[in-house]
């Protein structure tokens, strides 16, 4: 009987299978070292991503560099990539020894980052792009190199977050810090015998009956955004994170040092206020603070040097905490980050076929998203405005007078911005200035009153959201700010003007909201998910309360003005606010931008 013979199995280690294609390690290393950086360069440095300036799209990193370079308070972000590169360089010997053993787990942050990349591209805003940079980098490291690489590079990757300017946090963080900073400075001045009072963000000398001095006659300071701690806070947080990583070993001490940067920044600004108050008492306002030229405050040399107190106090506190935590070990901790460069081959690739699949995924997914972006409609399609730019001449007991946009406002406001403004006065003497302002060609062409008013010399005491029931039955929420401004018409006579300012934002389909950042969020959310390009408007009501000698204000005047304003706004708002179902007159339909507009 003949015996059947079978060919030998060419696949080692199994039967009936096929061998995986052989992959040369050098070719894979070349693909990783060249292919990954090339894709990241196209994605973040070359692809036109957002209209950072007017009519031209620029990439995430090009627009970031151009914008940060012009913002003095955020220029520290420019050094962060250099520091990140140095941190990676310190780990070069450890990375050389690590193999490329990627994991499919990296797909989660990679796909999430690419989604935010497309989201920011569609909404024409950079912050999702910043998040995309972070997530895509994490995804690529995990997908191609593996967890050991991510663990080694984790701090450098985390530190990269300081590259992105957190401008939206300026108002939300600075507003609560300003009155707290003024209150702490007032407490300390009172402890050392300088009678001081604080109201909102204002820090003023207390009245002195014996000498006949009124409130604020000796000194009067306002804690603006620059003195609140916000402009130094992010830079100090960056320094504390880097110092903790280099000088401390234990994670809990690093976290404590990082958390301490916040109170240290505030403490530094309190010291700054104390120096300004003492300088004003000793040498006068012009020497200590500077002179106001129109709506601009010219800082004195003393004021500038007092600003260095913020970093002096904060850095001294950081080094003191480092010494307290691990003082004797700081020198050895600093040395441990440097390691001798050894010889040997670059990172090993123990599983070539699997690494090849991971590399293909890391290269293909970003290219697919770029194709999706190219097919995405990003044209400028402004919706119809939700307001009528026409205010009635009379309103139940109020007589109105129309005022046009001034030449100064035309120069300051973006192209295409329009407004209707009337000043209403009642027989009882109540005055209410009403302004309905409609955005122009730029999505962010409406400015926050919180920015404009301090530049005009007003001090914002507080801001509160309040409900308002309109006469037609609609219920909205508005923002109310309490303001005051002091003037000295003649030596020794100080007049305080108090006022209220109410405002809210009005979208294109009956949408409304009371907060600036909420209207920004709705702009991008509705543009992406509802295909609505809002043409926002803002309704603003300015109500003078009183103009009296400092210290002689009527405590009930503000309450009466608030109630009169609520009744007036409830009647007037329905005359210019369209409902979602209400047709918009042809004269207000849409906005056709010029060829140069985004």
Describe the structure.
With 598 residues, the chain is of the alpha+beta class. The chain folds into 3 domains: 25-165 and 348-375, no CATH class; 169-335, no CATH class; 394-588, no CATH class. The chain is 47% helix and 18% strand. Strands 8, 9, 10, 11, 12, 13, 14, 15 and 16 form a 9-stranded antiparallel β-sheet that branches. Strand 3 (196-199) and strand 4 (202-205) form a beta hairpin. Helix 3 packs antiparallel against helix 7 (147-159), helix 8 packs across helix 10 and helix 9 packs parallel to helix 12 (301-326). Mean pLDDT is 81; it is low at 1-18 and 586-598.
Quick summary:
The chain has helices at residues 25-46, 60-70, 80-90, 92-97, 107-123, 127-145, 147-159, 169-191, 230-247, 251-283, 285-288, 301-326, 330-335, 352-375, 407-412, 449-455, 516-529, 557-576, and strands at residues 50-53, 56-58, 196-199, 202-205, 220-222, 290-293, 296-299, 394-395, 398-402, 418-426, 431-438, 459-469, 475-490, 493-506, 512-513, 537-549. By secondary structure, it is an alpha+beta fold. It is flat and about 90 Å long.
What topology does this entry show?
Layout: H1 25-46, E1 50-53, E2 56-58, H2 60-70, H3 80-90, H4 92-97, H5 107-123, H6 127-145, H7 147-159, H8 169-191, E3 196-199, E4 202-205, E5 220-222, H9 230-247, H10 251-283, H11 285-288, E6 290-293, E7 296-299, H12 301-326, H13 330-335, H14 352-375, E8 394-395, E9 398-402, H15 407-412, E10 418-426, E11 431-438, H16 449-455, E12 459-469, E13 475-490, E14 493-506, E15 512-513, H17 516-529, E16 537-549, H18 557-576
Antiparallel strand pairs: 1-2, 3-4, 4-5, 6-7, 8-9, 9-10, 10-11, 11-16, 12-13, 13-14, 14-15, 14-16
Helix pairs in contact: 1-14, 3-7, 5-6, 5-14, 6-7, 6-14, 8-10, 9-10, 9-12, 10-12
